[in-house]
């Protein structure tokens, strides 16, 4: 599909409406880090969609009033977010021609702690894109579920790249890859269920809240720094190549190779940050302490506990439900929780 196919229709009956939608967050296994104009990713990425970490959004549209956006997060007005959303809405007018024909009141709530540092842009833009598609269908008629999700993913991408993956459950790919049929730079697609071994369908993600609060460098700035990073091209190529072993691993359930690949991706992401100019480091002492403890634990027990990181200090602890999970949970509670700021952990599972 091309961008042209997402352009808006000709006829709309625009009325005041209130819609509400919910969208989960996601955690990437092969990372998106670096992009071109119009939110085109420099390499394909694959993520797990989470189950409990979600954004719930109520969007009130008041037709035929001057265009403006008011946003509330957990009841508090968020002016910074309003500017961002206004810019976003103006940017997607060609795909939703009615979008500037009214006033918006957007109320959002995250199911995860506000200051946790868990990325809310993926679930946040995912939920807004779903609300916009709900309005579009009220104004111009319903298309197929598949079309609607595809366009919501396309629109979510224009808000925040990783958000486009949150529209689907399971393992989700965004970015064109030779080894994933139907994959596209413009929207995400679900990784085929039949190509995923059962062991990867019943997985935990416990997020250790190592550092709560604002990150020192935003993802958007971080992506931008890849433009001048001397290792960027090699990294983009490696991410593309990593889809080849990932496909084999997902099919045959090779946990050992999965662990090696996923941890390598996480460390490469942070290595890229350290190689940027100016350099930056988002990991904290606790992040490194936890990583070392995970490696020691694996060496001693052979149990499949491993980690990934997003653009922050928190550690996503990944482990399957394959019989050893109680031992792993006990280890996390006793050995890893002390490295968090306030005994903070968000216990999530992958949604299939
Ligand atoms: C490290 O999607 O937050 O989480 O497109 O600028 O909004 P923007 O960036 P964003 O970047 C996420 C980067 C990442 C890796 C990933 O989710 O693939």
- Indicate how many domains the architecture comprises: 2
Give the termini separation.
26 Å
Gross CATH architecture of the largest domain: 2-Layer Sandwich
What fold name goes in the CATH topology slot of the largest domain?
A: Ribosomal Protein S5, domain 2
Strand-residue proportion? 15-25%
Morphology:
globular
Fraction in helix: 25-40%
Rg, Cα atoms, Å: 20 Å
CATH class of the largest domain: Alpha Beta
Low-confidence stretches: none
Element-level helix/strand string:
EEEEEEHEHHEEEHHHHEEHE
Number of helices: 8
Number of strands: 13
Hetero ligands:
ligand DP6
Q: How does the helix and strand content classify structurally?
A: alpha+beta
Largest sheet: 7 strands, mixed
Task: Let me know the average pLDDT.
Answer: 95
Topology of helices and strands:
Blueprint: E1 17-30, E2 35-36, E3 40-41, E4 45-63, E5 68-73, E6 76-77, H1 79-91, E7 102-110, H2 121-140, H3 145-159, E8 171-174, E9 188-190, E10 203-208, H4 219-225, H5 232-252, H6 255-274, H7 285-301, E11 306-309, E12 315-320, H8 325-336, E13 345-349
Parallel strand pairs: 5-7
Antiparallel strand pairs: 1-4, 2-3, 4-7, 4-8, 5-6, 8-9, 10-12, 10-13, 11-12
Helix pairs in contact: 2-3, 5-6
The structure holds ligand DP6.
Summarize the structure.
With 352 residues, this protein is α+β, with helices and mostly antiparallel strands.
